[in-house]
Amino acid sequence: MLTPNEALDRAVNLVEQAKKAGADAADAVYHCDASTEVQVRLGALEDVVRSEGEEIGLRVFLGQRSATISSSSMNPEVLKGLVTRALDMAREAPEDPYAGLAPQDMLLKGAIPDVQSDDGLDPDPQSLREIALACEDAARAVMGVTNSEGAGASAGRSIFALATSHGFAGANHASGYGVSASVLAGEGDAKERDYDWRSARHRVDLDSAEAIGKRAGERAVRRVNPGAIKSGTLPVVFDPRIGGSLVGHLMGAIGGSMIARKTSFLLEALGDALFDSAISIIDDPLRPRGLGSRAFDGEGLPTARTAVIDKGVLTGWMMESAAARQLGLKPTGHASRGGSGAPGTSPSNLHLEGGTMSVADLISDIDYGVYVHELSGQGVNIVTGDYSRGAAGFLIEKGEITGPVSEFTIAGNLKDMFRALTPANDLEFIRSTNVPTLRIDGMMVASA
After folding, report:
1. Domain residues for 121?
2. Cys staple from 18: which of 23, 90, 157, 307, with CB 3.0 to 4.6 Å?
3. Residues 282-294: pLDDT tens digits?
4. Domain end: 221, 246, 279, which one?
5. 368-384: per-residue pLDDT in tens?
């Protein structure tokens, strides 16, 4: 695997070739990664996978015409042909008045901040196998677990480099680790499955394999013999592992391209109070060791901590340069980039700030409701905000979480759901999007 400087050289060299060949402007991205994953099942090694890959992408501009092309081959002759084809494609492309590189005066200048994304370690397959075995052993040791779908441990490293023809050159490098287990409880047709996992940039930040496995086993056992739920308008409580999807729907709706195309249910909501005044949602790309940390975005702009929702109020859109130009605004440092295609947008490390109540206090006044720990289906309409998803979880009766329930649907409208949302105080920073336990009153719940 290349060093970050070698990766950056590849991007810089491709931009220089494009400029020499006649491009008015250009940028290039280079990405490489290498990872090892070990899978075990029922105490035996099942698979060891080593993957390595690299890709380079080039975007060229001829006036307001542009084209993007990518290659997984780094052969000099192939890259030379890549430049030629990109320019030929740009000549045939339609003019786009919003196309172009990011504003030069907004580029990240000086030293690139260190977000501590790489711990420099390289675990061998044997150590990963031991971690996976320990995780599965802990899951299978939980009384009531009857079978295993396996456990896994992985380690890898990646490099992302970006160079532009108007003055930016930088590279990010990151390590990544993961541990997971999936097991079954119950017998025959009454078997239930559940899982647990953790990911981290630094190996030392991972939970122990035993803790992950134990949680997977306990979750599976709790799901055995699910009952049915009574349909009605009920309080719904979201487990943190699936509650982050609600924040994801918010971020999808405030993307600059969605606003520019007028295809978002939040089109007229800028500056509005979407949530209770006690709620803020933060995007923090510079958080050390964060799963989504990055010092610069996909166009070379600096990143910064942003309150997307500040005391309940929507503060702005999430924009790359093209959408910003279309809206008459400035890009926000949220551009994301793959090898092919124009930049899109994405958040980095998101979290919804925790509330003041414990989970027990949050549900203490619920006479009849549901605690949701699994969602299915894709029933979310970002144009209208309508929300309808399959779910599984547990009944809440007289302020206590009781028996498991499954095969029901929860529905509402995201605007109403945001206004009714109340967070508990159990926020943990263990994912790229982190939320505490969330309560939303007044959702429609229907048994299948």
Report:
1. 4-221
2. 23
3. 999 999 999 999 9
4. 221
5. 999 999 999 989 999 99
